[in-house]
Amino acid sequence: xxxxxxxxxxxxxxxxxxxxxxxxxxxxxxxxxxxxxxxxxxxxxxxxxxxxxxxxxxxxxxxxxxxxxxxxxxxxxxxxxxxxxxxxxxxxxxxxxxxxxxxxxxxxxxxxxxxxxxxxxxxxxxxxxxxxxxxxxxxxxxxxxxxxxxxxxxxxxxxxxxxxxxxxxxxxxxxxxxxxxxxxxxxxxxxxxxxxxxxxxxxxxxxxxxxxxxxxxxxxxxxxxxxxxxxxxxxxxxxxxxxxxxxxxxxxxxxxxxxxxxxxxxxxxxxxxxx
Length: 275
What we know:
Blueprint: E1 3-10, H1 16-23, H2 28-43, E2 47-52, E3 67-70, E4 74-77, E5 88-91, H3 94-106, E6 112-114, H4 121-130, E7 137-143, H5 153-169, E8 175-181, E9 187-188, E10 199-200, H6 204-216, E11 236-243, E12 249-253, E13 256-260, E14 267-274
Parallel strand pairs: 1-8, 2-7, 2-8, 3-6
Antiparallel strand pairs: 3-7, 4-5, 9-10, 11-14, 12-13
Helix pairs in contact: 3-5
C-alpha cells in the first residue's frame, strides 16, 4: 500500500522564483523553501499530491469545475509566463488519479476528469522550489477557490480526509507527500488592501490564528465514513509553511492602521504533528 510520509503547505506567490534568483538561495524565502524541500527528501517522498486552486489559467469561466482530478500522464507549465523559472513538463500520476476519481465518486463527490491540461504558477512555483531535480511525480487536485459558489471549508476538510483514505488504500509501494498550495492571508486586487498596492495582507492576525491552530490541533480523526481505526496509526511529522504573501508596513490613518508602501514577500515555518 502507498504510504503518506509528509504533509506541507507552501505559498505559490509568482514573484518568489524571481525574488530568490535575485537575492540568492540563502535569502529568507529561498532558505524556507529549501527547508521544506529537505524535509520531503528526508521523508523519501516520491509523489506529491497537491491541493490547489487554479487562477483561471488551466480552467476558465466557460469550464470551471468545483473539483477536478487529472488523469493525464504529463502536463506542461507554466501557462501564465511566471518570471524567474523555466518551463518544464511535469510527470503526473494517472494511476493514482483514476483511484482518486473512483474513490471520491463512490463517496458522493462529483469530480471532473481532466485528461489534458497545462499548469500555472499555483502549481509550478511549488514544483520549482520543491522538486528542482525533477525527480518526483505529481497529482494536482483542483478545487474552485475563485468563482462563487465556493465549496465550504467543512466540505474541503472532509475531502482531505477522504483523499487520505484513498491514497493509503492504493496498491502501490510509492511514498506520497501532501502539499497545500496557497496562502492563508493574502488578498490580490481586493477592496481591503492599500490603494497603491495590487496585493497585501489585510488581516495578519488570521495567519497567526491559523498557525496557533496547526500547532495545537493534534487530534486523530476517527470513525464514520472515513474508515479505518486510527488508534495504531503511525505518527508522522510534517511541516506547514505559512505565507503571509506580502507583509505591509502600517501607519495610522483616521485612527486605524492601514497598509502602506511596497509589499514584501514573507514566509514562516511551523512544525506540526500529523496522525
